[in-house]
Design goal:
3-stranded antiparallel sheet, 4 helices
C-alpha cells in the first residue's frame, strides 16, 4: 500500500515542528531529537490542503487477521488526515540542511511531476488504483472542516469482514447441504432397492403358491370332467351293445 501526497497539496512543511523563519528553525545543529536508545531522530510535519490518497493493487483488499486489520485501520486513518508527522533517524546522506532546504522549497509552492505521479509502474507493472476511503472532496485551504466527520474505517472494515465471513459460511453451508443431500440420495436409493427386492421376493413366493393352487384346482376339475366324459362314453357303449344284442337274430345250423 502507498500513501500518495500530491506535492501541490502540501501547504506547509516543518522540520521538528519548526517552519522556516521561526526561532531555531534554521539551526542545522539543533534539528535532531533523541529517539529510543539515545539515537538521533527527527521528523517532518506535513500540513496538507487535502487528505492524501491511498493507493493499492487492482484487487479486492481484505485483511486476513487482526494484525492486518489494525494496519488497514491505521492506513485509512492516515488517508483522512491533513496533518502528518514523518519520523526517521538522521543519516549521512540526509542532512538537516537539505531538509531545511526542502521545507523552504515548499513555501514557494510545489507541483507534481507526471512521471512520478504515474501509478502504471506500481506492483510489477500491473499498476495501482486509488482506494476509496470516503475522502473524495477537498478539504478547505485554511482549516480542516471540523463538522465533516470521515466515515469510520473500523466500521467499514468490520462490514467487509462480516460480508466475507458470511460468504464463506454460505459456501460452507452449500457444500454441507450438497454432501448431506448426496448421502441422503444414496441411502434412499439403497433402501428403495432393498425394499423392491424384498417385495419382489414376496411377490414371487405368493405367485408360485397361487399358481400351484390354480394348477391343482384346474387339474382336479379337468380330472373330474375327464372321468365324467369317460363314464358317459362307457355308458353309451354299453347301451349300444345291449341294444345290438337284443335286436340281433340267432341262426343255428345243424349238420346232416
Amino acid at each position: 500500500m502507498f500513501l500518495f501526497i500530491p506535492p501541490e497539496s502540501v501547504r506547509n512543511l516543518a522540520l521538528n515542528g519548526k517552519a522556516m523563519g521561526t526561532a531555531g528553525g534554521t539551526d542545522a545543529n539543533n534539528v535532531g531529537t533523541l529517539g529510543p536508545g539515545g539515537t538521533k531522530a527527527t521528523y517532518l510535519r506535513f500540513v496538507l490542503s487535502k487528505p492524501p490518497s491511498l493507493v493499492g493493487p487492482h484487487q479486492h483488499l481484505q485483511p486476513r487477521n487482526k494484525s492486518s486489520g489494525r494496519v488497514w485501520d491505521s492506513l485509512c486513518a492516515l488517508a483522512h488526515q491533513t496533518s502528518l508527522d514523518v519520523c526517521f533517524t538522521m543519516s549521512g546522506r540526509l542532512s538537516a540542511l537539505r531538509l531545511l532546504g526542502l521545507c523552504d522549497a515548499v513555501s514557494r509552492g510545489l507541483g507534481s511531476i507526471a512521471a512520478h505521479a504515474n501509478r502504471a509502474s506500481l506492483y510489477a507493472g500491473k499498476g495501482g488504483t486509488l482506494v476509496d476511503v470516503g475522502i473524495a472532496r477537498l478539504m478547505p485551504a485554511t482549516t480542516a472542516a471540523a463538522s465533516a466527520k470521515p466515515p469510520p474505517a473500523l466500521h467499514t472494515w468490520f462490514s467487509r469482514v462480516v460480508d466475507s465471513r458470511l460468504a464463506v459460511m454460505r459456501h460452507e453451508l452449500t457444500d454441507s447441504l450438497s454432501e448431506q443431500m448426496q448421502g441422503l440420495e444414496t441411502r434412499l436409493e439403497t433402501s428403495l432397492q432393498k425394499y423392491i427386492d424384498e417385495r419382489l421376493g414376496e411377490i414371487r413366493v405368493d405367485m408360485r403358491q397361487e399358481i400351484t393352487n390354480m394348477v391343482d384346482v384346474e387339474g382336479e376339475r379337468i380330472s373330474i370332467e375327464v372321468q365324467d366324459l369317460v363314464q358317459e362314453e362307457l355308458n353309451q357303449v354299453e347301451e349300444t351293445l345291449r341294444e345290438r344284442i337284443e335286436n340281433s337274430s340267432l341262426s343255428l345250423h345243424f349238420g346232416p
